[in-house]
Amino acid sequence: MAASSPEESPSAGPRLRIGHGYDLHRLEPVAPDGPGRPLIIGGVRCDQNRGPVARSDGDALLHAVTDAVLGALALPDIGELFPDTDEANEGRDSAAFLFEALRLAGEQGYRPVNVDATVILERPKLKPIKGEIRANVARLLGLHESCVNVKGKTHEGVDAVGEGRAIETHAVVLMERADH
Ligand SMILES: [Zn+2]
Hints:
Blueprint: E1 8-9, E2 13-14, E3 16-29, E4 40-41, E5 44-45, E6 50-52, H1 60-72, H2 78-81, H3 95-107, E7 110-120, H4 127-141, E8 148-153, H5 159-162, E9 166-177
Parallel strand pairs: 7-8
Antiparallel strand pairs: 1-2, 3-6, 3-9, 4-5, 7-9
Bound molecules: zinc ion.
Zinc ion binds at residues 23, 25, 60, 63.
């Protein structure tokens, strides 16, 4: 009989799985001046006159985190699970997408361990609201704040992101099999 590795059990899949998520939304003047929705980052609403164009609430950070969770489990991505052509997703709170991704991961026996995310945008500066965003993302994931990191960057005035016409996000999520 072959000895089974403590790191990997073929029947249950690897103990640890890593996922990456990326998102970008165009930022436009917020209604009624344009098609933008109020800017929401990690569930935290920002008072800005430009916001994302999206079918859902356009929370680019939660979209990247959701895709990272799904990606870790090699599940269909957020656009496949929640198409922006589906009117059921109109104005939808993106936390619902994250909860569904966590539910699907949980069905396979996995839960999140830690998250590292980067938000790239010109305005607002993330620093004053970073703590609130981090706490909220941790709450949504059921993680201690020490296991969630959110970094803010600008795009140095270059390209659409740098000109304040888009928000870009990246997230890496580590998942572990819950039987450990
Ligand atoms: Zn998105």
